[in-house]
């Protein structure tokens, strides 16, 4: 059984910034899976690694976050080219309809949509739909920082780790959380 | 051609011109890339006996064949030049996104010659090369330079290798920094860039990279990714290499107060375990590395609060125990400064330790230190000296910027006996008196006292050899280790991955074929290791190396370790001589350590015989 979800909730690739070490192997795995070669600029998962030195470093990867308000679909100027699968919630790009105009690119809050320079069609993470082993990025991540999850799953995980751990440290593990 | 680009970029700083040259499969196969290819290109493109800080010295950047693929822990490049510290071969490596970008830009190697007329930085944008004015960057630290160049080009994907003020001032052990905290650290690479008025090399690449066998490469990525989470790399992952502090202290081989003892009474206070509990903020990885050894630590206490840098064991040793410093906050601050100024932490720390011992013995006084109190453990003085060295402040800063060898020759008064360097390169954080194979390794290594090129401490520490006793068997043992290391450094597989192989030669050959599609066998790979080692040695012979250079500082012979598990240990001169002869013999060299013509022929290096002329003995006179 799994976490009970509200209707219409979608899964996406979640990166745990505490576990991510910023190696970027996922970026290469995605390119390998989707393109058959290694090309960072067209990977559907991207590395956001910041080492400002006056603040703590951040290592995080980003891919489609399955926004509830689908700004990419709203921005799309070629109707019917970006379709959210009602079953899986995966964004499907319809190559016949997509003109490669790229309005969805700035609409994306996370900068993880790109236009293929050859086919002129938009490329977005589709969770490696149909791939037996699941998404390639999740499979290669050496630190298990990546997972396929919904917001409900992630928030439940957070409740059960971060505050729960503090409670344990206080020796009051019986309080716990209710999930 | 898979992985390899088959191209070399030649950059002439005098004429501000660049040229693309092709490089054939046969050459690449013979030298692999990285250090092997780098040394070959340095040999072929530089005149003998040039001034390392003059316009005739040459810089070679040579990439790993695996950079920009799924193979973990291999995105590295080698920075190869004639070292201003040793006057011999200087090859430094750095794991980095810079190497990936270089591969995506399509360069197996970049050869830089001449000297720019004014401060310049190179921007290599795929095939286009721009010589850009660096007046405004001159004086900036490495981190700021990277950011400024990314800002000027307005692209976060631009990767930058740069020097800080130490390189500009030609401090003989200045480093080259990239990825805001990784370095091609040793042997004075940064000083060579500084001497060429070359502030930075920025790179951007958009070429797709293809491997010969995609599916197998993906499987290998999973395989080695998984193996590198196991016990073989446990120590590198947590607490990181800094875990060495307590291990070495226990064994009595943690060099303390300029190698006066191998036990540090404050080891616990500066241990990796302590650092992990109270200072480590985040673990990071080099580009494409599944191990992730980089521990970013933050100083918590004033006056060092806010300093933040990734600290590895060697840096911690150099700013800590060897200077008697017991404050982690101060160590973090000193390392942070070194990274910003572009200074090799190891040589900087050991040079400061030499000055502190001079102070202890009255050779240097407050008059000659510019008022600094160089008492052991005075971390404020250590931090102040890092600053003075990087800026070559007249007086002590300028003196120490020359390194222990030159500084002790200048100061004299017996300070040469405790100038802890071999061939001019300062010793790393392992005590040779308690590690005899390592002692041999650093005595003969082409780069000088380097633990990375001559990892003899491994059999010593693992108990595969009696670490207190010299014996001729170490000659063959070291030869094996060096050849292995030379292949790792040419394929550019991180040494921290080496224990993840069951049979490196076979697995390494397979990896190479999967990536490149070129045939490779275990025995051919072994021979490549030997070829690269002989090539390094040949370069040194050309530059004036003599057998007298293969020796250790007097302290290691004359002062027994006073305490701890290594109490009483020394290196015996006779024992070292025997081991060196055994090593030369295992290499097939003459008793003077020269390479006979037959050895060159055997290793397909026959063209060097003519090149070296009289420096090649006609018969093997072992």
Spatial order of the strands forming the largest sheet of chain A: 1-8
Termini Cα gap of chain A: 14 Å
C-alpha Rg of chain B, in Å? 23 Å
Q: Report the portion of residues of chain B in β strands.
A: 5-15%
Tell me the major beta sheet of chain A.
Answer: 2 strands, antiparallel
Globally, the shape of chain A reads globular
Largest interface (CB within 8 Å) is between:
A-B, 27 and 44 residues
Count, helices of chain A: 5
Care to count the β-strands of chain A? 8
In terms of structural class, how would the helical and strand content of chain B be classed?
Answer: alpha+beta
The first-to-last residue Cα distance of chain B is: 43 Å
- Poorly predicted regions of chain A: 170-179
Approximately how much helix is present in the residues of chain B?
Answer: 25-40%
> Which strand order does the major sheet of chain B show?
2-1-6-3-4-5
Multimeric organization: heterodimer
Overall average pLDDT of chain A: 87
Number of helices, counting only DSSP H or I runs of 4 residues or more of chain B = 25
Fraction in beta strands of chain A: 15-25%
Q: How would you state the average pLDDT of chain B, rounded?
A: 96
Low-confidence stretches of chain B: none
Summed up, what is this model?
Chain A has five helices and eight strands. Chain A is of the alpha+beta class and 179 residues long.
Detailed description of the structure:
- The complex is a heterodimer of chains A (179) and B (622).
- Chain A has helices spanning 25-35, 71-75, 104-107, 136-140, 151-169; strands at 12-15, 46-50, 58-62, 82-84, 91-93, 114-115, 122-123, 146-149.
- With 179 residues, chain A is of the alpha+beta class.
- Chain A starts with 11 loop residues before the first strand and ends in a 10-residue tail after the last helix.
- Residues 170-179 of chain A have low confidence and may be disordered.
- Chain B is an alpha+beta fold and 622 residues long.
- Chain B has 25 helices and 17 strands.
- In chain B, helix 1 crosses helix 2, helix 17 crosses helix 19 and helix 19 (473-491) crosses helix 21 (522-542).
- The two termini of chain B are 43 Å apart.
């Amino acid at each position: 059984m799994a976490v009970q979800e509200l209707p219409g909730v979608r899964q996406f690739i979640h990166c745990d910034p505490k576990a991510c070490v910023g190696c970027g192997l996922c970026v290469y795995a995605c390119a390998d899976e989707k393109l058959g070669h290694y090309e960072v600029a067209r990977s559907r998962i991207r590395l956001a690694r910041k080492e400002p030195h006056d603040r703590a470093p951040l290592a995080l990867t980003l891919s489609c976050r399955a926004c509830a308000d689908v700004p990419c679909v709203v921005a799309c100027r070629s109707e019917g080219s970006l379709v959210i699968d009602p079953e899986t919630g995966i964004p499907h790009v319809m190559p016949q309809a997509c003109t490669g105009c790229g309005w969805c690119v700035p609409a994306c809050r996370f900068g993880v949509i790109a236009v293929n320079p050859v086919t002129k069609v938009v490329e977005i993470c589709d969770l490696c739909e149909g791939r037996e082993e699941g998404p390639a990025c999740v499979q290669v991540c050496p630190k298990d920082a990546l997972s396929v999850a919904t917001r409900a799953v992630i928030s439940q995980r957070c409740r059960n780790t971060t505050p729960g751990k503090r409670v344990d440290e206080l020796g009051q593990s019986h309080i716990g959380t209710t999930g | 051609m898979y992985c390899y680009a088959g191209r070399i970029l030649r950059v002439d700083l005098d004429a501000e011109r660049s040229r693309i040259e092709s490089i054939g499969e046969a050459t690449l196969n013979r030298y692999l890339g990285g250090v092997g290819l780098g040394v070959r290109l340095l040999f072929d493109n530089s005149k003998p006996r040039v001034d390392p800080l003059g316009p005739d010295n040459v810089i070679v950047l040579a990439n790993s064949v695996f950079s920009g693929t799924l193979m973990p822990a291999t995105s590295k490049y080698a920075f190869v030049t004639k070292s201003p510290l040793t006057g011999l071969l200087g090859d430094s490596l750095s794991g980095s996104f810079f190497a990936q970008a270089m591969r995506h830009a399509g360069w197996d190697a970049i050869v830089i010659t001449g000297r720019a007329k004014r401060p310049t930085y190179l921007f290599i944008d795929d095939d286009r090369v721009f010589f850009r004015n660096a007046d405004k960057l001159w004086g900036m630290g490495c981190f700021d330079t990277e950011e400024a160049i990314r800002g000027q080009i307005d692209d976060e994907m631009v990767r930058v290798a740069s020097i800080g003020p130490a390189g500009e001032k030609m401090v003989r052990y200045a480093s080259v920094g990239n990825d805001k905290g990784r370095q091609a650290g040793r042997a004075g690479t940064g000083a060579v860039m500084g001497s060429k008025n070359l502030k930075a090399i920025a790179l951007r690449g958009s070429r797709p990279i293809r491997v010969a066998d995609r599916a197998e490469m993906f499987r290998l990525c999973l395989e080695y990714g998984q193996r590198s989470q196991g016990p073989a790399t446990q120590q590198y992952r947590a607490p990181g290499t800094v875990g060495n502090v307590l291990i070495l202290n226990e064994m009595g081989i943690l060099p303390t107060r300029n190698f006066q003892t191998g036990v540090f009474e404050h080891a616990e206070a500066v241990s990796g375990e302590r650092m992990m509990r109270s200072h480590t903020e985040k673990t990071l990885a080099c580009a494409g590395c599944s191990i992730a050894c980089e521990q970013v630590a933050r100083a918590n206490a004033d006056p060092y609060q806010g300093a933040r840098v990734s600290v590895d064991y060697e840096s911690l040793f150099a700013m800590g125990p060897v200077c008697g410093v017991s404050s982690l906050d101060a160590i973090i601050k000193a390392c942070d400064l070194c990274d910003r100024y572009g200074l090799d932490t190891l040589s900087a720390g050991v040079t400061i330790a030499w000055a502190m011992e001079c102070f202890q013995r009255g050779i240097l006084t407050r008059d000659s230190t510019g008022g600094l109190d160089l008492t052991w453990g005075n971390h404020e003085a250590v931090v102040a000296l890092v600053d003075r060295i990087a800026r070559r402040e007249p007086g002590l800063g300028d003196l120490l910027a020359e390194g222990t060898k030159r500084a002790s020759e200048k100061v004299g008064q017996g300070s040469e006996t405790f100038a802890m360097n071999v061939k001019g390169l300062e010793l790393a954080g392992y005590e040779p008196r308690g590690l005899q194979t390592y002692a041999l390794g650093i005595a003969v290594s082409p780069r000088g006292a380097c633990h990375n090129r001559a990892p003899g401490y491994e059999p010593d520490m693992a108990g595969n050899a009696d670490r207190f006793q010299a014996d001729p068997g170490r000659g063959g043992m070291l030869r094996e280790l060096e050849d292995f290391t030379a292949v790792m450094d040419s394929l550019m597989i991180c040494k921290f991955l080496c224990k993840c192989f069951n049979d490196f030669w076979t697995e390494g050959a397979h990896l190479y074929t999967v990536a490149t599609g070129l045939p490779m066998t275990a025995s051919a790979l072994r021979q490549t290791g030997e070829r690269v080692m002989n090539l390094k040695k040949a370069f040194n012979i050309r530059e004036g190396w003599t057998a007298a250079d293969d020796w250790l500082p007097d302290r290691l012979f004359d002062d027994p370790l006073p305490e701890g598990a290594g109490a009483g240990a020394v290196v015996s001169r006779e024992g070292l001589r025997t081991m060196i002869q055994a090593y030369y013999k295992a290499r097939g060299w003459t008793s003077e350590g020269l390479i006979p013509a037959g050895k060159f022929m055997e290793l397909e290096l026959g063209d060097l015989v003519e090149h070296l002329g009289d420096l090649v003995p006609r018969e093997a006179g072992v």
